[in-house]
Amino acid sequence: MKIATYNVNGINGRLPVLLRWLDETAPDIVCLQELKAPQDNFPFKAINDAGYNAIWHGQKQWNGVAILARNMEIEEVTRILPGDDEDIQSRYIEALINGIVIGCLYLPNGNPLPGPKFEYKLKWFDRLAEHAETLLNLKIPAILIGDFNVMPTELDVYKPEKWGNDALFRPEIRKAFAAIVSQGWTDAIRKLYPDEKIYTFWDYFRNAYERDAGLRIDHFLLSPQIAQELRSGGIDRHVRGWEKTSDHAPVWIEIDKK
Fold this sequence. Notes:
By secondary structure, the protein is α+β, with helices and mostly antiparallel strands. Helix content is 25%, strand content 26%.
């Protein structure tokens, strides 16, 4: 089974790119982030015509997450990350697909700091950590997937010395990510490529993609029940070079589950 994540940076504006990539790679499950579309403006028909069922949680102009599944039913569990009933930002959606809990997330950016956006990010991480532990306690296959807006180590960022005071690389944020992993989750891409420089995001400015000045901020965290099934994974880097594409590239893993 092939599972992918892709921050599309505006699903309607990037729809031709998304459909081209789906046709080219045919992943079984896809988590999308940053839809930038209200709930009733999700292009379900086009995605369904491409062979995918879908659930989504939209928001006008900002955020938005979705889960797609090819030839499989999607049983929605929740579209709210527990811990704050007043949080109206559409950043999390969870479903059960083929016996696997799929948590699709778009973690806050947190910039500028200090300030309320950074504090919101820290609190969101706290909520995610609590929910992640709850999922582990269920002792079932689970994957937390998406744009975490964090580079876990210096290996995950071009010129790390320039990112010391950015909300994606602050010590507090890296510590929060590491704390979740230490619960018993496996960082799938880093497990497969322990010593390699791998990026999933390249800014539109200063020819970042051409210079390979990137960041690894899109991650898969696997519960122990599914980590043992991990077989391969990678970055569809070439998609970042397509016309009118997102500033992220799709990331994928393959597991031994039919």
